[in-house]
């Protein structure tokens, strides 16, 4: 930016004359202005007046900072003055404010003119208008770093702001990870246009609540991240609470009152993570906890969550090798005909015996396997083991029963899932009618994609059961459309069963509906005799639960199977 002007006095007067004639030439084309040593404007040419929209009279005698746009930080001008007072030429791009409030950019060269003592007595600035280029640059920048829909920073913009902020942070920085609750249902009910409007309104309401020097960004879809500079946990909690409170007021969009809430996770840099990635991930984890705790609340990233994450990442690593190291096996839980009390089926349940943690519940490792896609090899392994075992029992002369295998949505979504089931059936020699695949009810929301696979599986001769029925909000019309064999009433209904309460009415309705649609109705989680009696009296076909039998090893279950005569 600087150029040294180390001239002798003689040279200087020659230079001054030269510059003066240059000034005349430039006057015709460029924006030229002259200030005295204090910055008071003493001369402006017509182009200067045109671009600044001030008349010559309005400018002369005023300090040059009349044009200050307050875009540049103070240091910018300090540096400029330091340079020109040292008799050096300063070059730079300045954003100025015109009289009507509009802004313009000028590429500026300021030349100090020196008096007889070699001191600057006036400064000549020669400028060119670069507003169009700057506007284009700003637009490109805006597109890259701002969210088109809401106008707040996008993920790239957030990362860019964080680079600077975290590098210079000498105090804690708080991260709030916010996820709208049930945003999908707003989209589904009111349409995407209203969904977009809601996101815009949400960003606006948040911006009003958070002071300007903090960062608000749209991280993805309905996820937002707020970063509070120099902030304690208490301050973060205060903001989170303020946001939650403010969302108890509905949004009015296209004449509809829409209520929406946030689940918020909070983590701190650097105490909860030494990089932006880790703090964001941890705030996200805390947000998941908020979801689990019933949504519309905030949670802090705690030591307990830290421990859970550690365990999760260790389990994930170990799960990859669990098949190879033979740490997995299947248990089988018998299913009984409630009328005849005979065993009619076995549900295969995966077990993992970890070398250091001991037995790990599928409730913990199945979701992990689903997140990491490890469910694909695991699911295949389970299916093959279960079919092989069932065929073995049949070959050994036991009365055939069906084997029920739980299938995850990830497996069903594989284009070759049906082919791999068919291949396993061929390889093990099990008749398809003795295989039942259990899919959870929540899968049915993705109906279009699954209908085809389910039909093909049925065509193979395999049965399909809807697991955990009653919890996944599937409508009757969905059940009509699918060639399903059985409904498994979710355990929670059976657990709360009491002959006079509402749950018993719900169970009766599910059984009636299932029977009318020609499904087998299965009740799981039966622990007591009165539950079993109630279900039998209300014509539920099949029962499964600790009352009859816990899940058993293959040796134990074999003792319960009946030899063919
Ligand atoms: P699920 O398919 O609904 O399986 C029934 C669960 O209820 C089993 O838990 C079983 O042990 C438990 N249970 C059975 N009777 C009773 C009872 O009377 N009272 C109570 N309180 N519980 C009972 P488990 O084995 O822990 O499995 C949990 C879930 O993990 C399963 O729920 C299933 O969704 C999933 N899972 C298990 N094995 C596999 C698998 O091989 N593949 C997939 N994708 N998921 C599996
Ligand atoms: Mg099941
Ligand atoms: Mg179930």
From TrEMBL:
Domain (PAS) ranges: 18-75
Location of the GGDEF domain: 171-303
PANTHER family referenced in this protein's UniProt entry, alphabetically: BIOFILM ARCHITECTURE MAINTENANCE PROTEIN MBAA, DIGUANYLATE CYCLASE DGCP
Species this protein is from: Priestia filamentosa
Listed name of the protein: Uncharacterized protein
Domain EAL: 312-565
InterPro entries for the chain: Biofilm_reg_signaling (IPR052155), EAL_dom (IPR001633), EAL_sf (IPR035919), GGDEF_dom (IPR000160), Nucleotide_cyclase (IPR029787), PAC (IPR001610), PAS (IPR000014), PAS-assoc_C (IPR000700)
UniProt domain PAC: residue ranges: 90-142
A matching Pfam family: GGDEF
